[in-house]
What does this fold into?
Amino acid sequence: MTNVTSSTDRVQFSLHEGIATVTLQRPEAANAIDLDMARELLRIAVTCNDDPAVRVVVLQGAGPRFCVGGDVRSFAAAGEGVGRLIKDITHHLHAAVVRFTRMDAPLITVVRGPAAGAGLGLALAGDIVIAAPGASFYPAYLAAGLSPDGGLTYVLPRLVGLRRAQQILLQNTPLDAAAALQAGLITNVVEDAAIEETVREIAQGLARAPRRAVAAAKRLLGASLTATLETQLDAESMSIARLALTPDGREGVAALLAKRKPTFE
It folds into this structure.
């Protein structure tokens, strides 16, 4: 597979053996999202969405903090133009979130330290969310007199239910890693010394999985909360029938019958 590494002042991207690693690259600013970072995230999200060599994406922050959300220093510096600046940032950030969420490749987010504001939305966009014990999850918006963005009002009720989401957002409730795991915000908490190896093993397993089947499962799960039972069952029926005709589907069935490990494309 293609191996690629690129880096800007804001985001680093690498692709190795099907695993794309995206690193927010402003540790001196706690990886706060300014307009340049939002633009770079969108550019990289489009690459991950469009490149068939990308089989899984890992999103993380450089340094001890994942992302503290929007760059409030740039908000203050914008003066009367702050509304236009925030619209520009969210335009690019939200387009990136959509692509990370809808792309065929599964997204793993790795949270060390705080994920706050839009950083919380980015963290929870992961199909799998791995957190270090010292990670924290904090809406932060009401403390700044602002409302949520980054998809947080969409994803949070789907993860924890409306009542719990209301408590977290309206009472600006911070959660540590253990509380986030118990609430269902994240997938697992992994000790710092083991987190890189754990994420690598998960990513390698997903990279070896049948790409079309993974993408289909993502799409079905994404549609399930707004579909009727009948609509969802129809979608499942059409999806599994299509996949049964693909080389990976044929190989998977043959491997099951032969009681051997499958070799997917």
